[in-house]
Design a protein that fits this description.
Shape: globular
CATH architecture of the largest domain: Distorted Sandwich
CATH class of the largest domain: Mainly Beta
Number of domains: 3
Structural class: alpha+beta
CATH superfamily of the largest domain: alpha-galactosidase from lactobacil brevis
Bound molecules: alpha-D-galactopyranose
Helix content: 10-25%
Number of helices: 16
Oligomer: single chain
Length: 725
């Protein structure tokens, strides 16, 4: 049993392979958080709540405020004397706020099912503890869920909030999880970035000022990730304590941490309250997105591998998660908007000849005027002026070649220069009387309106039904602003942001249900919507428009710290690179693109002969590690962010018999010896073949191998084959 209840002390203990999470009822009322850390056998750790020190109200009712402001809580409410960040805030129709949740009961459920309409972790080898609390004055019931899987060091949390009374109220804040704990001399890790330089790891000391990662852009955006970790100051890849959280959500989020004057730390994560209100009528309920909590006593590497395992085993659509992804060629950087059927077929023929498996037609194939960003979005029918014979004509030809086909959509958007806008100007998200700000010359469709969702779903599904398309790139190229809906009533306007996200989920869920074979790759101006919410629907996400292999070192390091390498959309682009202007050899670009799904995004028909002839070898090499990428364990050996000189990572199979390492020399240091790199994750007793030389696993991990320095920007690929013990 992973979850046990001790009635004598009124405490629950949730065990994962290496951690324990303990919570209990204090003062016969409040749901307190007692412990989260390395696995312990005893469940009676309530002394950690310091009942003698924090003047519990049962002893000194006159000091209840002091108690509320220091007791560790699982789901703190606003306005009742806990002055730390809260999880729940509501307002009645009379304008009054305040809520006081009192424990009512619990149940333990075997397994973890999916929830329609929301991305959630799932699996049979799990147990879920559901704890019910109520606030009598507002007639509100909160059910907190805590799930643990037998094979993973993570706790999955969420809250369901139900109005059991007769009058409506407004949720003004409904966070997914709170974690109260203590850790001395700690630091905060977050990820930040911008377009073309996403997911960069940042680390800062935690003093008493709050630190937060957040978004109000409608998605997490390029500049923050729905993730936060509090780590001991000395934490590195292999040692130190880590308390990490991620939100399974593709919209506005807040992850916030603060240390109170007693050095107690509170970390909360959930939908960003700044852009959220939700009206709950009598009998209605609201479910928060899931939050993941991970504790690692073995540094950041274990946190990363826990997230990877959780997502691969319990989140990503199982159909695709372990299936080999096709090696694709995408025409965006090859042609931008300037293509016709002949050009695409020319690319397809050359690509097929070299071993590429799937051709993706990117932006520009639809509407009457999509030759620049200002037109077309919303008119999801083919432009026959560009594609004679339509998509059918193109796919018939590709089919004959044996080339699979994929197609780009940007389904959440509308351009003014479209038939759709002429027919339905009211479908644009806008504030009455104001023209919404344009971004990339486009506006947002009002996904709170079911008619809009139906139109978009049918436009996409109609195409997928009529041609053999096996892959869809779902793009999203602007942040959400000027929020207002002609469809929703006045008292529900604050719901637009969350309803938009639910609308995206709904359409992607319908697509995956009707076309279970479909491989969806999510994308948002590169990597602005790379999160666990989207991973539920799409097993791979475009990581960044920046395909320069040197830039990609930090982008991919940050992405892989949170998400499996197999989910990272990664392509070889032209050189010099269109975004960074840097020139890097074809071979190094190919090695860099193996960190993920591997594909080409250049005009293959214009490549010099010596480069195009390298493609079959690159593909063969990638295919030889494709399974490792899908299933193996990832180890970060060195980070260019930190070394300023080189970067290295490796992936090891579960049975430790197969592995590969990639080393990238970025800036050479004159007059230096070969570099000694210590490997990780191998079997110390196994012998390995490395470039024809046999080493013991213990030697490779403790003494390391010597990497000869090459020119700047030269990547090296090292294969390891276990030879037995
Ligand atoms: C976004 C994507 C690119 C490409 C373009 C097309 O920027 O990130 O990969 O699809 O849109 O407009």
């Amino acid at each position: 049993m992973s979850i046990t209840y001790n009635d004598r002390i009124k405490a629950w203990k949730l065990d994962t392979p290496n951690t324990s999470y303990i919570l209990g009822v204090v003062d016969e009322k409040y749901l307190a958080h007692i412990y989260f850390g390395a696995r312990v056998e005893d469940d009676n750790l309530s002394y950690l709540l310091r009942p003698e020190e924090i003047v519990p109200p049962s002893i000194k009712p006159e000091e209840q405020l002091g108690f509320m402001d220091t007791v560790q809580l699982e789901y703190p409410c606003q306005g009742i004397g806990d002055f730390r960040e809260c999880c729940l805030a509501l307002k009645g129709e009379d304008g009054q706020t305040g809520c006081n949740l009192i424990y009512k009961g619990y149940e333990i459920i075997n397994g973890k099912g999916r929830i329609k309409g929301l991305p959630t972790c799932f699996g049979d080898n799990a147990q879920t503890l559901v704890i019910k609390m109520t606030d009598e004055i507002s007639a509100l019931e909160v059910s907190l869920s805590f799930t643990v899987f037998e094979d993973c060091d993570a706790v999955i949390r969420s809250a369901k909030i139900q109005n059991t009374g007769k009058r409506a109220f407004y949720l003004e804040r409904a966070m997914s999880a709170c974690l109260d704990f203590e850790l001395e001399n700690c630091e905060i890790i977050t990820e930040c970035g911008a377009w073309a330089r996403e997911h960069i790891i940042e680390r800062t000391k935690l003093n008493h000022a709050a630190v937060c990662a957040e978004s109000i852009r409608g998605e997490e955006g390029h500049d923050a990730m729905p993730f936060m970790a509090v780590v001991s100051g000395n934490a590195d890849q292999n040692s130190g304590e880590v308390y990490a959280t991620q939100l399974v959500y593709a919209g506005n989020f807040l992850a916030k941490v603060k240390k109170n004057p007693h050095d107690q730390i509170r970390m909360v994560i959930g939908i960003n309250p700044e852009t959220f209100t939700w009206k709950l009528e009598s009998g209605q309920s609201f479910r928060t997105p899931e939050a993941i909590l991970v504790y690692s006593a073995y540094g950041l590497g274990h946190m990363t591998r826990t997230f990877h395992d959780l997502f691969r085993n319990h989140l990503i659509r199982q159909d695709w998660v372990r299936k080999e992804r096709p090696i694709l060629i995408n025409n965006w950087e090859a042609t931008y908007f300037d293509f016709d059927k002949d050009k695409l077929l020319e690319i397809g023929r050359e690509a097929k000849k070299r071993g590429i498996e799937l051709q993706v037609l990117d932006d520009g194939w639809f509407g009457y005027n999509r030759n620049q960003p200002s037109g077309g979005l919303g008119d999801w029918y083919v432009n026959e002026a560009k594609l004679e014979g339509g998509l059918k004509g193109l796919t018939d030809e590709l089919d004959k070649m044996g080339m699979k086909f994929g197609l780009w959509f940007e389904p959440e958007m509308i351009c003014e220069d479209t038939d759709l806008y002429k027919k339905h100007p009211e479908w644009v998200v806008h504030q009455k009387g104001r023209i919404p700000a344009r971004a990339r010359d486009q506006w947002l469709l009002d996904y709170s309106n079911p008619e809009v969702r139906e139109y978009i779903f049918e436009s996409m599904a109609g195409i997928v039904r009529s041609i053999p398309v096996v892959y869809i790139k779902w793009d999203m190229n602007r942040a959400i602003s000027d929020v207002g809906s002609d469809y929703l009533p006045a008292d529900r306007q604050g719901e637009i942001w969350h309803r938009h996200v639910l609308g995206v989920y709904e359409i992607q869920e319908r697509l995956t249900e009707e076309f279970p074979y479909l491989l969806i790759e999510n994308c948002s101006s590169g990597g602005a919507r790379f999160d666990a919410g989207m991973l539920y629907y799409s097993p791979q996400i475009w990581c960044s428009d920046d395909m320069d292999p040197i830039e990609r070192l930090s982008i991919q390091e940050g992405t892989a710290m949170l998400y499996p390498v197999s989910t990272i959309g990664s392509h070889i682009a032209k050189s010099p690179n269109d975004i960074s202007w840097r020139s890097v050899s074809f071979e190094s670009r190919a090695v860099a693109a193996m960190f993920g799904t591997f594909g080409y995004e250049l005009d293959i028909t214009k490549l010099p002969k010596e480069e195009v002839e390298q493609i079959p070898g690159q593909i063969e090499r990638y295919k030889s590690i494709r399974k490792l990428i899908l299933e193996g364990n990832y180890y970060r050996l060195a980070s260019y962010r930190e070394t300023k000189e080189y970067d290295a990572y490796m992936i090891v199979s579960n049975d430790k018999k197969e592995a590969f390492m990639v080393y990238m020399q970025v800036l050479s240091k004159p007059n230096s010896l070969s570099r000694r790199v210590k490997l990780q994750g191998l079997d110390p007793e196994m012998h390995y073949d490395v470039n024809g030389v046999t080493y013991g696993g213990d030697v490779l991990m403790n003494a390391g191998i010597l990497i000869q320095r090459k020119k700047d920007f030269e990547a090296q690929f090292v294969r390891l084959k276990g030879k037995g013990k």
